[in-house]
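Limitations
The structure tokens in this dataset are predictions for the assembled complex, not deposited experimental models. Users should treat interface geometry with appropriate caution, especially where small molecules or nucleic acid strands are included. An illustrative entry is reproduced here so readers can see what is and is not provided.
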Amino acid sequence: MDFDFSPIILSVKVATAAVLIVVILAIPIATLMAKRRFPGKAVVESILTLPLVLPPSVVGFILLYLFGKNGPIGKALGELFGVTVVFSIWGAVIAAAVVSFPMMYQSVKAAIESVDPQVERAARTLGAGELRVFFTITIPLAWNGVIAGFVLAFARSLGEFGATLMLAGNIPGRTSTMPLAIYFASESGNTREAWILVAIMVLFSFLVIFGLNHWNKGNGKNSEGRIANG
Amino acid sequence: MVKVKIKRILPSFTLEVDFQVANEILVLVGPSGAGKSTILQCIAGLQTPEEGEIRVKDKILYSSISKINLPVRKRRIGYVFQDYALFPHMTVEKNVLYGQPKESKSEKALSLEEILEMLKISHLAKRYPREISGGEKQRTALARALMTEPELMLLDEPLSALDPDTRGLLQQELFKLQKHWGIPFIMVTHDMQEAQLLGNQILRIENGVFVSVATGTG
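Predicted assembly:
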């Protein structure tokens, strides 16, 4: 058995790191966008969801410019911390985070907008400050959207190909995640390895969609109880 | 004693009112859209008036002249919303405890058990809002507001969504609660009968101004 498991382990690592970054950024940004009005909001909204519609190669090209050795962010990172993003695992993480951000952002924003503002007002009249309202009322009531966004962002991160290839390249054991390994295995005629990785991706993606659908159905019947008891 | 003198510019008219409430029930009546709820929201701090002053006891909650505008959470006002606004993901007990002060400031303060007992909802403590009736939700909302040891209670059409029997029962209990707590209650209703039954003072409002003042039987 000479099967190389490194793409699977690497993919899980990259997707986990990417989703962590996405959670930290998307929840506060989605909250601000759901609650506040400001000039130019529509433009900001469009920029935040742009990676959803842009071809991954375009995202990859822009990221390569920004994080390249002489790019504005890449240069600063290199000088300050000695970190190189391009052709490293960090490149794969950043590419995955950028393309999966809109999944989490949209899901969380929609969920927060659906929370009854009257209930949040009630919490304020009961003496709660904004942070307490957010953590004890808004987030628990928007929990379904947070979980759905999390799962979709993770799946999207795991499947990221185009931008990763441009920013991180295909270095076995370092940046060769499952989708890249499948492409290069297929190209080089290594059909057996490609099939194994394809089967794992299909099975995982199926479980994600099946699980989310099943879970949504359960919530539809008893939306408040699910959060309350869970 | 509560003193309210505010001016609030609304899209279709300007709300301008000036009134006082002692430790009694003041009822605001009038057609919908007359500005009744706006008055309550200004007092609670959920809306900010353009001008005026709001005082509860000696504390200034809002003053346009001294540029004071206390945030909602610091006003110590119990607010009962028309649609109850209970927290759907918390049990009755958790709802009632949400606003309990860390240190009790009032000698009238009651424990959770006493408040649940007083509002006859002890047996519902572990239920969720979706599992109880409208009248029970209203009792929970009242208990939750009273648990904060408020210095003033604001009630926005508290009984309008209830059936006549429950409504009659809760009218009597509101009356008793106010007597027990001895704090001002300001209640909004569009039902003149209810206003006369409960109000010590009745103010009729139309298009943002008081058109008549009456004394109820309450």
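Some entries come with short summary sentences. For this one: The domain at 6-229 of chain A is CATH 1.10.3720.10 (MetI-like fold).
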